[in-house]
Structure formats: C-alpha cells, structure tokens
Amino acid sequence: MKKAxxxxxxxxxxxxxxxxxxxxxxxxxxxxxxxxxKSYLIDANYSWIVLGVILAFxxxxxxxxxxxxxxxxxGHQPAFLTNVMAIGTGYAMNLIIPRSGEVARAVxxxxxxxxxxxxxxxxxxxxxxxxxxxxxxxxxxxxxxxGTVIIDFFKERLNTAFAKAGSSTILIYGIxxxxxxxxxxxxxRYIKPFxxxxxxxxxxxxxxxxxxxxxxxxxxxxxxxxxxTMYLLMFYVSIFALPDTASIPVSGILSAFVAGSxxxxxxxxxxxxxxxxxxxxxxxxxxxxxxxxxLGWILWTSQTALVLIYGLVSFVMLSIKNSVSAK
Length: 327
Fold this sequence. Notes:
By secondary structure, this protein is mainly α. 84% of the residues lie in helices and 0% in strands. The chain has 13 helices and no strands. It is globular, with a radius of gyration of 22 Å.
C-alpha cells in the first residue's frame, strides 16, 4: 500500500507542478497576449523544428551506441537495435513516471539479452553521473558568458527579501537553517533510509569510476560529447523557427537550454515547467514573455512528440521481436 502511494505521488506531484506553472503563466496574460502566442505558434517556420528533431534523434542513437561500451565492460553486448529500443522505451516511460525510464531500459536488455537488471542499472547510473557533470559544465559556462545578467537577477531578489525582513527574522531563519542541517547530518549518518542514500551515492562513485577503467573510455567520452553537442544544436537551430528569437545572444541560448534541461528532470518530461522556465530566463535577456513562452512550447511539443513516436515504435518492435522469439 505504501509503495503504491509513493508511485502515485511520483506521478501526480510533478504533474501538479506542471499544471500549476501553466496556470500561473496564462492567468497573467491578457487576451491580446494569448492571441499573440497563438500567432507565433501558427506562423513559426517548422522546418527548423524538424531539423532540431533530427539532431535530437541522432543523440538518442549515439546514446544507444555509447551504452554498449559500458555493457561490454561488464561482459554483455546487446545488439545496437536492442539498445535503441530500450532507450526509446525508457524515454517514453519517463513521460509518465519521472526517472522510471532507467529501470525500463534495464528490463528490456534483461529480457532480450539476459543482462542482469542490477548491472544494467549500474551502467545507466554511471552515464547519468557523467551527463550531469556535462550539464553542470554547461551551466557554469552559461553563468560566465551571461555576465551579470543572472547574478544581478538573484542579487536583486535577495536584496528585496532581506530588505523586507528585519534582523530578528533573519536570525530566526538562520537558526532554523542550522537546526535543519544538523538533523539532516544525523539522519544521514544513523537512520537506515539515509544509509541507503549514502550507499546509493557510493554506488554512483563506483559507477563513474568504471568509465575510466573500461577499455574504450575515449570512445565513450567522444559519444558523450556528441550527444550534448546534438542537444545544444537542437536547441540552437530551433530558435530560428521564430524570426524574433533568431537574434537571442549565446548567453541567452545557453541559459535557456540549462533551464529547460533542469525543468525536464523535475517534472513529467518538462510538462508545463519547460515553457515556463524558458520564458522566464529569456525574459532576462530582453525577450518578451509571450515570445519566450511560444518558443518554449514549440520546443517542448516537438521533443515530446519525438519521444512518444520513438517510444511507440520501440514498443511495437519489442512486441514483434518477443513474438518471433516465442515461436
């Protein structure tokens, strides 16, 4: 019963966040602004979006190829097509339950090629760690090239918050933060669920170390760079779909890309959150909120459509493969 409730929360909470962000986005728009967004969506040059989808799909193929370097290191090497189908299935599952795709991928290669599920998940965790590091590097680059735009934004918000709060309020918040930190440290060290978290973090470290000990690590890293280059190019070419976003500076493009990447991680495939965060970040670079919102929805819709079609085709191909194998 408890596990079922947790699974339900994993689905509903990110979905609720997405719906909430959609609500606060559109309740602040006037009727004219909503019509302006519709106009942007209708008049967009979708040939650039198609190119972006192709680039994104190339990154998925590269991810399938890259995975075999890690699987080979643990004594297994599924067919490339099997990996392609496993990743398509995983992406589709992530739209329903965030982070469930990793398990789905592992289950597919287990059923088709008898790769142990725990070992398969270990390889996926390792690649997620490396991908997260790449994302952090891009985030740091975005902060550097954006100059003071983003830093000034947060400084302004913090100064406003502290200006409204008295010294006694700040002291209370400081004490609460200290107590919370102490509780987290104690729980992390002594309570079983937090021990599991500690072991999980240790597993991440072990998985990441495997990347550096495998024989084909440089090919693995080359595919990683290719994957993220495709992600960035996908985002970049898509801005030309709308004439008014074609002149967004590199700093704005990188910052919006980072915001979108984190939005996808925290909600069901970025539903609601992706367009909202794209618009809010681009607003800092002088892009009208209606225009930023339109671009965000075009990007999210195109990439979600790719995942759905890719996932559906993967499901069908797996079904055919399983039925043929059963005979």
